[in-house]
Amino acid sequence: MLGVGRSRPRRPPPPAKPWRGVFFEGPEPAQDHEGEGTHAWHVFVGDKEAEPVGKVYTCYSFGAAQDLAQRMARDRKLELICEAMPA
């Protein structure tokens, strides 16, 4: 019988990946390219403390930011944390 009496050392399981989510926040006061007052929304992948772990995307339209956040969450298979509302 093959393999009888032989034991392989067990490998430890791979370390668990830290939790990540897609955060959708805003509105925040902002200025457009002409210096006029407007609103901005931020979308980013963050850790459990809601700190960005990569690029933060700034959108000047609620709808565009919402679409981006939903796409990012779906594509990356991450939970969407929505703390945004229309201006």
What overall form do the CA principal axes indicate? rod-shaped
Separate helix tally: 1
Q: What kind of sheet is the major sheet?
A: 4 strands, mixed
Helix content: 10-25%
Distance between the termini: 72 Å
Low-confidence blocks of residues: none
Strand order of the largest sheet: 3-2-1-4
Mean pLDDT across every amino acid position = 92
Strand content: 35-45%
Query: Which value, in Å, is the CA radius of gyration?
Result: 21 Å
H/E order of the elements? EEEHE
E-strand count: 4
Protein described:
The chain is of the alpha+beta class and about 90 residues long. The chain has a domain at about 25-85. Helix content is about 15%, strand content about 40%. The protein contains 1 helix and 4 strands; from the N terminus they run E-E-E-H-E. The protein has one helix spanning about 60-75, and strands at about 20-30, 35-45, 50-60, 80-85. Strands 3-2-1-4 form a 4-stranded mixed beta sheet, covered by helices on one side. A hairpin with a 5-residue loop joins strand 1 (about 20-30) and strand 2 (about 35-45). It is rod-shaped. The model has no long low-confidence stretch (mean pLDDT about 90).
